[in-house]
Amino acid sequence: MAEEQVLGVTKAVNAILAKPALALLTLLHITPANSEFPIPNYLAMELIVVVLAMLLFLWLKPRIRADNPGATQQAMEFVITNPMGVGVKDLADDIIGHGAAKHIPLVATLGIFILFSNLISLIPGFMSPTADKLVPLGCAIIVFIYYNVVGFASLGPVGYPKTFLGPVWWLSPLMALVEGVSHSARLLSLTVRLWANMMVSELIYVSFLGLTLGLFTALGHWNPIGYVSAFVPVAIPFALILLHIFVAFLQAFVFVILPIVYLGMASSEH
């Protein structure tokens, strides 16, 4: 397998954090794939997404107004609740019901992180960390652990395992097997859905952008009028940018609604 190309922004992150990263990996007896750049692309992009999100919300916090909200505040509030009923709070109230508010911080944080991670590849020289399978897997593991902990907390150490056994006692062993596989498959489902969609979307977007820029340059080199004739192929990556943005929002929404559904099922007494 060809070695992954190290992004310029990843090199910059490694210039700052490579030494402590190497020290931590040595302490854990882990050998990095690239000793010169121990922090890979996806992890560097994750760190950048987290830093950018923190800076955004630190900037927004003192500007929050109840009487005269700004555009950024309204956009963030739209994520939580909106007239279409697809905000995090709207969905949680409808699906989970009583006690839904306590789950909003985790679900909303995951959704915003994934959305920012999906969109950051629109910046030239950046990539979506969610296009690497390890990032969606990490988010899926957080969801898996969280909703099971909520299930035990809501129904108790006896009541929650009983939900895996079904209502018919003599079918309990079979139901336990089926439910165990079903819950394990949620990890795979959450991971593959986000990873595959973002990887393909980013690959198509970057490939067509590169091909179009090459065609645009070639046409202009052959004939200045060629720049005019290149309008149609140049419009293709613009359409793909819109498609990439749509996929980014859609996948973030899916990664919000599925954990809410799992939480509703885990905490339900039925």
* Domain tally: 2
Radius of gyration: 23 Å
**Largest beta-sheet characterization:** none
Strand segment count: 0
- Give the helix level as a range of percent: over 70%
| Shape, per Cα inertia axes | globular
**SSE arrangement, N to C:** HHHHHHHHH
Mean of the pLDDT scores? Answer: 86
Specify the number of helices.
9
Strand content: under 5%
Would you identify the regions where 5 or more consecutive residues have pLDDT less than 50?
Answer: none
Q: Compute the separation of the termini in Å.
A: 49 Å
List keywords for this structure.
270 residues; mainly alpha; 9 helices; globular
How would you describe this protein?
- The chain is an all-alpha fold.
- It has two domains: 7-39, no CATH class; 41-62 and 70-267, no CATH class.
- The chain is 72% helix and 0% strand.
- The protein contains nine helices and no strands.
- The chain has helices spanning 8-27, 41-60, 71-80, 88-95, 104-119, 134-162, 172-222, 226-229, 231-267.
- Helix 6 (134-162) runs parallel beside helix 9 (231-267).
- The radius of gyration is 23 Å and the shape is globular.
- The relative contact order is 0.11.
- The model has no long low-confidence stretch (mean pLDDT 86).
In short:
With about 270 residues, this protein is mostly helical. About 70% of the residues lie in helices and about 0% in strands.
List the topology elements.
Elements lengths: L7 H20 L13 H20 L10 H10 L7 H8 L8 H16 L14 H29 L9 H51 L3 H4 L1 H37 L3
